[in-house]
Design brief:
alpha/beta; Rossmann fold; five-stranded mixed β-sheet; five-stranded parallel β-sheet; binds 6-O-phosphono-beta-D-fructofuranose; glucose-6-phosphate isomerase activity; glycolysis
Length: 430
């Protein structure tokens, strides 16, 4: 992973970072790196996720999913970090085995998806670190029933990925289902490089060793200076830009196959750094598509954001045929890849010309190794940002209120949060 902070410097953008400010910040990066290393050495909760390139066991993952190697499709039932990592890999890497994700409880969508799946040839991967997430368990019960109704033995097609405790672990034990363990100390949004993200990838035949090697390469680049570590450079610059007013981070990959990566990044950034009244709001965008929808705001709107432009340097290309159609000849003879790269560089320059901070993130190509680098790099960037901001990066206490309210509304217990729902202030216009 390569990170270019040039367009985030104060002689280009506002908010922007002076070289002196970056040098000053670099002293804090050294301390933060030490803290992170200590957390890794002691496998502390959260920091342990940055050890996964060494601690993940790809052979054990392959062995566990071997019974599903013949699957035509793999259906992951999970939400948040229990789906987004696997979905990022599945969307980025082509495979003969289709991957589907049930990470919401929209009944129309669930029914349409289940009706379209070859259930008898589908491997079902139920993923929940806690084993208690309502959406995941509800969807699992619905999938199980659909398999029963289709005369498919669900216990034959299902494996679970979960923690040592919880409903899902108990279900796996009672039904004797193959079960993968979510490693200790690894929060959901930091679990793509573990069983959580790699089981689906293994069933799809992806080279999970290469993913972990790429992540390992990025781990080797973590150092006591942002000038030696692309991940820390990205994390430190994002933090410093937030400090100066960039409250939004628009993640804009220039590859359709990285669109889900932007969703994965949104959870990582929002759930890790959105605390104590601060945090950068991740916005999901896609290049070149959103040049034609959001760029107007990114260029001419408030100077309250940074834009992160991500691209692979190499990609399979497709020529644009020659044409003598009026005004189009300039396109003929070049390629879609040339056009996309021109759009990338033009958009980057257009933001700089408007004084809007942006950061370039490049990977070699979209393959297992480079994805491992990118995912690990963004995780390490997030951990460093959390250290500099002084927030508890690895917890997400604010999500519990809504869970209690929903559970109470469904009769799943007595929760004051559910009462508050009934007390809603209304001003309805219809
Ligand atoms: O893997 P689990 O425990 O089902 O949790 C799913 C997701 O829900 C959250 O806990 C938020 O509600 C995320 O942190 C997590 O990734």
């Amino acid at each position: 992973m390569r990170v270019d902070l040039g367009n985030a410097l104060s002689d280009v953008a506002t908010p922007g970072l002076s070289r002196e400010a970056l040098d000053e910040l670099d002293e804090r990066v050294a301390d933060a790196h030490e803290r992170i290393q200590r957390g890794r050495d002691e496998s502390e909760h959260g920091y342990a996720a940055l050890n996964l390139p060494d601690t993940a066991n790809p052979d054990a993952i392959r062995r566990a999913v071997e019974p599903f190697a013949d699957a035509e499709a793999v259906l992951t039932v999970g939400i948040g970090g229990s789906a987004l990592g696997a979905a990022t890999l599945a969307r980025a890497l082509p495979s003969e085995t289709d991957a589907f994700f049930l990470d919401n409880v929209d009944p129309e969508h669930v029914t349409r998806l289940l009706d379209s799946l070859p259930l008898a040839d589908t491997a079902v991967n139920v993923v929940s670190r806690s084993g208690t997430t309502a959406e995941t368990l509800a969807n699992f019960l619905v999938v199980r029933e659909a398999m029963d109704d289709a005369g498919v033995d669900w216990t034959d097609r299902t494996f679970v990925t979960t923690g040592e405790e919880g409903n899902l672990r108990r279900l796996a034990e009672t039904e004797d289902l193959p079960a993968l363990a979510v490693p200790d100390g690894v929060p959901g949004r930091f679990s793509v490089l573990s069983t959580v993200g790699l089981a689906c990838a293994a069933i799809q035949g992806h080279d999970i060793d290469a993913i972990l090697r790429g992540a390992g390469d990025e781990a080797d680049r973590l150092a006591g200076s942002l000038y030696d570590s692309p991940a820390y450079a990205y994390g430190a610059a994002s933090y410093a830009l937030e400090e100066r007013g960039a409250a939004v981070n628009a993640m804009m990959p220039y590859a359709e196959s990285l669109e889900t990566f932007a969703e994965w990044f949104a959870q990582l950034w929002a759930e890790s750094l959105g605390k104590d009244g601060r945090g950068q709001t991740p916005a999901r965008a896609l290049g070149a598509t959103d040049q034609h929808s959001q760029l107007q705001l990114y260029r001419a709107g408030p100077h309250d954001k940074m834009v992160t432009l991500v691209r692979p340097e190499e990609r399979a290309d497709r020529d644009i045929p020659h044409t003598d159609l009026d005004g189009l000849s300039y396109l003929g003879g070049s390629s879609l890849g040339d056009l996309l790269d021109a759009e990338f560089e033009a958009t980057e320059a257009s933001l700089a010309a408007a004084g809007q901070p942006n950061v370039r993130v490049e990977i070699d190509r979209i393959d297992e190794r480079s994805l491992g680098e990118l995912l690990y790099g963004m995780e390490a960037a997030c951990v460093l940002y959390g250290e500099l901001a002084g927030v508890k990066t690895f917890t997400q206490p604010a999500v519990e209120w809504g869970k209690k309210a929903a559970r109470g509304l469904l009769g799943g217990g007595d929760f004051e949060e559910a009462d508050a729902v009934a007390e809603k202030t209304t001003l309805t216009v219809e």
